[in-house]
Design goal:
single chain, alpha+beta, four-stranded mixed beta sheet, three-stranded antiparallel beta sheet, 10 helices, rod-shaped
């Protein structure tokens, strides 16, 4: 018999490793001196150590090693073959996840880039500012305030890249990419939404919302936007547009600019306004403000 120090040198390990194997029960010393507590090993136990070390290096758990140790070399070889297959399958899954992650991350980054360009386009779109009657010199301060709001949202959008990377699923990315590729970033195809979500406007208008303001037959939003009643604090406001297809209100990005203008004109919080745009069925433009 040899001491634990001698056995550790024979096996090329530390005495701490041998004590750990002793505690877990996979390699106990041949004898422990009852007076001194010294551990002693048989030289033949080095073969058991080699088996344990190789199983550990092959990623077997202590529990698995404990079950395999009583078996012969054929059992050990079969276990190693299974472990190799498992590791190959795991590696294939990891490679697939890696490829999918890189593809989806690139898609999301493209979406963020396109959305950023789209919002920049709205900031510099004179047609939309004219629709709100904010194109003149006298309204330069209000226009600048609304533009500052849009710039702030654009910065938030860019900062949200990491969060979008974690939260946006493949279906959402595909839908946004299709809308933008179809020309929605130019305001061509995203004209009328079936519900508020499709127009980026939040939840549909509740059936019990109360109408507090209405205008019909107008050509431009500027004709009535300064006549809106004061927004009631603590309530959700719903902007319902029914417009002709050629109205600037039908352009993609109108709800976003509307929120910025309302913030500039009335200090209305963007989170308290929902905008819904529908096709007019009588060839005229209509607007209603509802609250709940």
């Amino acid at each position: 018999m040899i001491t634990i120090q001698g056995f550790a040198k024979l096996c090329g390990c530390t005495t701490q490793t041998l004590r750990y194997y002793d505690r877990t029960g996979i390699l106990k010393p041949a004898r422990v001196d009852e007076w001194t507590g010294y551990r002693y090993y048989e030289e033949e136990q080095a073969l058991q150590f080699v088996k344990i070390k190789n199983l550990q290096q092959a990623d077997f758990s202590i529990e698995e090693i404990r079950d395999l140790l009583p078996g012969d070399d054929d059992l050990l070889a079969a276990a190693l073959d299974r472990k190799i297959r498992e590791q190959r399958e795991k590696l294939e899954r990891m490679e697939k996840i890696h490829r999918s992650y890189l593809r989806e991350k690139m898609d999301i980054q493209n979406v963020i880039t396109l959305l950023g360009r789209f919002m920049e386009g709205q900031i510099n779109n004179p047609g939309l500012w004219k629709e709100f009657g904010l194109e003149g010199e006298k309204d330069a301060e209000l226009r600048a305030r609304a533009q500052d709001t849009l710039v702030s949202w654009l910065a938030d959008l860019r900062d949200a890249s990491a969060e979008l990377d974690q939260q946006m699923d493949r279906q959402v990315v595909d839908e946004i990419m299709k809308m933008l590729e179809d020309g929605n970033s130019e305001g061509k195809n995203l004209v009328f939404s079936k519900d508020a979500e499709e127009n980026g406007a939040g939840n549909p208008i509740p059936a019990d919302a109360q109408q507090v303001f209405e205008r019909s037959g107008w050509q431009h939003v500027s004709e009535w936007i300064r006549d809106l009643p004061e927004m009631c604090g603590g309530k959700q406001d719903y902007f319902l547009f029914r417009v002709r297809e050629d109205s600037p209100v039908a352009a993609a990005g109108f709800p976003t600019v509307l929120l910025a203008v309302m913030d500039a004109l009335y200090g209305a919080a963007q989170g308290g306004i929902t905008c819904k745009v529908e096709r007019s069925d009588d060839g005229a433009n209509h607007f209603a403000l509802l609250e709940k």
